[in-house]
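Workshop exercise sheet. Pairs work together: one partner reads the sequence aloud, the other fills in the structure field after running the prediction. Swap roles for the next sheet.
Pair: D.N. / O.F.
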Amino acid sequence: MKNFFTRTITGILFVVIMVGCILYNPLSFGFLFALVSMLTVFEFGQLVNQSGEVYISKILTSLGAAFLFLAFMAYSMEVEGIRIFMPYLAFLLFILIKELYQKRENPIGNWAYSMLSQLYIALPFALLNILGFQRNGLTEGIVYNPIFPLSVFIFLWLNDTGAYCVGCLIGKHRLFERISPKKSWEGSIGGGLVALAASFALGYFFPFMTYLEWAGLALTVVVFGTWGDLVESLMKRQLGVKDSGNFLPGHGGLLDRFDSSLIAIPASVIYLYCFVF
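Structure field:
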């Protein structure tokens, strides 16, 4: 009962902070996700370092993630040009070169996991800026539209909730038993239907996309979000851990909370720029 109460309170605060920071203004959006990027990469570094087989600099990679998000934000707002990414490119070169002087046992593993932290975590969060900032066709200026990044998380949250409820009630056929024994096809379909229903509500209140385009975004988020969840489950199995951390009481680590979004965000960008914008 205590764990349920803790989990509920943490979940409510998590959603309130996320929704509030995304909707309030671009600065609160940027601060939130620069911080989330940094902390999630730091958590990833703790996970891989505890295996004893590789070592990555948690501080260096987490600062790189925060900078990449802010660089994407500045570029998306047209505050800075392409030069804003030069320090990040220098950071990637430094990660490669520093292994020459540290004489560690597994430099290739260190390189691989350091780069993975940026590709798997930092880049997807940075791509939220592509969703949040678009050019206004009327004024030819850049405007902040919080509904696009927020909608991705709404679809993910509703999909998770729907999948859990339906799966508990009628879930029988395992979706991917080798990696996640508790997930069922029934739950996944139920969660997808809940997200699809929400897409029509968003289409009604935010008609800058058609109902069909909103439905396409919902299905994209659901399918790729499910894969994102499975990808993190596979990684945790490989590393031999149950939770990525304990940052969120009752919910595990930040990586556990954002695992679905790490695949869903890039997929959403591809969908919107290929079929909508």
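Discussion prompt: Residues 211-239 form the longest helix (29 residues). What would you look at next?
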